[in-house]
Structures are given as structure tokens and as C-alpha cells.
Write a structure and sequence with these properties.
Layout: H1 2-13, E1 20-24, H2 26-36, E2 42-46, H3 59-69, E3 78-79, H4 83-89, H5 96-106, E4 110-111, H6 112-119, E5 142-147, H7 155-164, E6 171-176, H8 188-205
Parallel strand pairs: 1-2, 2-5, 5-6
Antiparallel strand pairs: 3-4
Length: 206
């Protein structure tokens, strides 16, 4: 994960002005870390993976994570989901036909190392890759968007993540109807407009 963050920080650091940063799932954790490191004018995370210290683990999250965490060797390779697993974890509010179409369009094997790193963050001693300073008053404004029907990172995970932030900067959370693959819902344009409007408003005020 550190290699990914180093690359993102280099790219963002070369821009003329701080951008609005948005991330989904693991990208949500990346966004939180980037903001904590001083990058970006505002951030929006969608169904974000939790950062270090968030210990709420709903049963649905355990079930959804099992295809990756069941085999320790997955920590060192890219891991994919079957169409059935994709439906249960990512697209459970869609029909099976719609889910399969989304699977064929968007599914790629992902780094098991990142997933295992997040799962073990609260076990390892010291600061892990997903550490953020929850007291960082200089951190840009941050919005959490949580899908009400997301089994992987359900709303209670997002709310717990938000409660960890005790800094004197804007940190908010809203919920939308939808699964983990929230950006693919039929109302995605309304979701995108809301996220962008919020980010522009708070980035401007900052």
C-alpha cells in the first residue's frame, strides 16, 4: 500500500493546485490517508474501507471478506471473485443479470495484500499503512458516503470511522440506498452531483 500512496502523492504534488480527491472502497482509505498527509482541497469517500483503529466488524463484513481472507496465501497475489461472490458482495441490490453485466464490465482481480493489510491493521503493533491522525486539525474537509445495503463496509463501519475523527475540521457522513458498488446505481448522477457539490462547497470555504 505504501508504494501506491507514494505514487499518488507524487502525482498530486505535481499539480498546479490541490484537487478534490474521491475514492471508493480501498480507494476511500487511500483518500483518508492522502488528506491526512496534507494532499487535496477536500475529499469524498464512498463505501470506504476503514482506517486503522476502526474495530467495528459486522457479520456481513466477515462473510463478504471470507473469499479473500480464507487463504493466507492470498496475501501475496491478486485475488478475484466469482460472479456469484461478486453479486453477494458488490451488487446485491441489482438483478442477477445486471450484476453479471457489471461483473463482466468492471471485475478485475485485486491485491490481496491491500485487503489483508487492512484486516491486520488493528493487530500489528505500532502504526500500519492505514494509519491516520484523527486529531489532525489541518486535514481538508472529508465526506463519507455509505451504501445502506453494502454488506462489505455497511453504514455502521462508516459511522465508526467518522466518530474516530476528533479534529476541528469538517467530517460528515450521509447514506444512500445501494450496494457496495454504489457508483453503478441507476441514480449515480444524483450521487455524483451531491458528492461534487459538497466537495466544491467545502473546498471553496476552506
Amino acid at each position: 500500500m505504501s508504494e501506491i500512496l507514494d505514487m499518488l502523492e507524487k502525482l498530486i504534488g505535481e499539480l498546479d493546485r490541490p484537487p478534490i480527491i474521491m475514492g471508493h472502497s480501498a480507494g476511500g482509505a487511500f483518500t483518508q490517508i492522502l488528506l491526512d498527509h496534507g494532499f487535496g482541497a477536500a475529499g469524498v469517500v464512498i463505501n470506504s474501507a476503514p482506517t486503522e483503529g476502526v474495530k467495528v466488524i459486522p457479520l456481513s463484513q466477515i462473510k463478504s471478506s471470507f473469499p479473500i481472507l480464507k487463504n493466507p496465501t492470498n496475501r501475496h497475489r491478486a485475488v478475484g471473485l466469482t460472479p456469484e461472490q461478486w453479486y453477494e458482495v458488490f451488487a446485491n441490490t441489482f438483478s442477477e443479470e445486471e450484476s453479471l453485466a457489471l461483473y463482466e464490465r468492471y471485475h478485475i482481480p485485486a491485491s490481496g495484500r491491500i485487503f489483508w493489510g487492512s484486516a491486520l491493521a488493528n493487530i500489528h503493533p505500532g502504526k500500519d499503512d492505514t494509519y491516520v491522525d484523527y486529531h489532525n486539525d489541518a486535514r481538508p474537509p472529508l465526506l463519507f458516503i455509505s451504501g445502506k445495503q453494502d454488506p462489505l463496509f455497511p453504514p455502521k463501519v462508516g459511522h465508526s470511522n467518522v466518530k474516530h475523527y476528533e479534529s476541528n475540521t469538517v467530517t460528515e457522513i450521509v447514506e444512500f440506498d445501494g450496494p457496495h458498488l454504489l457508483p453503478a446505481i441507476p441514480e449515480w448522477e444524483a450521487l455524483a452531483d451531491f458528492a461534487l457539490d459538497w466537495a466544491q462547497k467545502h473546498a471553496t470555504s476552506r
